[in-house]
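Write out this protein's structure.
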Amino acid sequence: MRLTILGGGGFRVPLVYGALLGDRAEGRVTRVVLHDPDAGRLRAITRVLAEQADGVPDAPQVTATTDLDEALRGADFVFSALRVGGLEGRAHDERIALAEGVLGQETVGAGGIAYGLRTVPVAVDIARRVARLAPDAWVINFTNPAGLVTEAMSRHLGDRVIGICDSPVGLGRRIARVLGVRPEEAWIDYAGLNHLGWVRSVRVAGRDELPRLLADPALLGSFEEGRLFGADWLRSLGAIPNEYLHYYYFTREAVRSARRAERTRGAFLLDQQARFYAGAGDPGVPALELWNRTRAEREATYMAENRETAGAGDREEEDLSGGYEKVALALMRAIARDERTTLILNVRNRGALAPLDAEAVVEVPCRVDAGGAHPVPADPLPDHATGLVCAVKAAEREVLAAAGSGSRATALKAFALHPLVDSVNVARRLVDGYIAVHPGLSYLT
């Protein structure tokens, strides 16, 4: 089976390849094709993968190319993990938003809109190429903002594109851990959009264990979301939010912390990865060892400003190992081998979550089999969550409309309608600022 990874020079690709090395079942991936427009990054990551495969019998063959069509032809699965504009673009997104006193995080608020506006046209082009060159392939989208980009691609690929995120999986794993059960023993009732969802119940042997968790301050204080949001607020909600909802519930604190920081997350990663790729390009440097050190630092500092704001402390050791690659491979195996499973995924709604329409991409539990991912109907969200989901989805739809039409006025509407952008005048300045620095937004007129 052939797997193509778009964004194949990306830093997290070795996580995927490392997971593939442990798969010895029939019907496994035997060839991995890496695509990236940056040949230097491809060389660096190819070195890391070669060191990972050293001594592993029957390791998947790795080839690399800068030719997109060549990478797509013959693919059975396509992992799309792009960063349009690179980390420099992310750093610009953060800086311009913070200068206006709003959040510039890459998937939330102004930063997520800017990232979406320059990513959607590229993702749509890829979807059209996949439909033409590899019509039987399944596309698994990692690219952020994951729900928005998946919805853009689904307009050309239908249900053959599925978005993934490790945030809800990690949340479910942490809740199961503090409740003293294995993750596979618990049904996590989770619903919302990507980076905007809530756990409403946790069923173990037919019994909802979430009330027990919410009633126990010690248990709530023993995992990241409990410390991040605080026991009183979680009890008020009657649910456990995705960690990214910290940006919505504690917006002023998040903005203040980000503006106080010595540098933004994007700027930190830009410097860190520049050092990694420079070092990994040196044949005398052990590339895998360098990658492991860099990854450990990256994971430990994830959402550090939010944890500092909430007094949540350092991340737990168990949460430093990532997880999105495990979700992707579980999804791929379920489809390729009809190994039926349940995963929280980004898929077209098809009536699963009211009041969103059938084509809206939502993040909900799905039954997965050889026919793809089938969303499980969810109970309606409470009014406060429904309002937030509908408002964010409306802003996403304006991003899609702007990307399709090239309308600057529609892009402005996307910014102005988002709950985390508090002024039409701020939205105007954001549009002007982003167009000025991003060549990828020159299509907006």
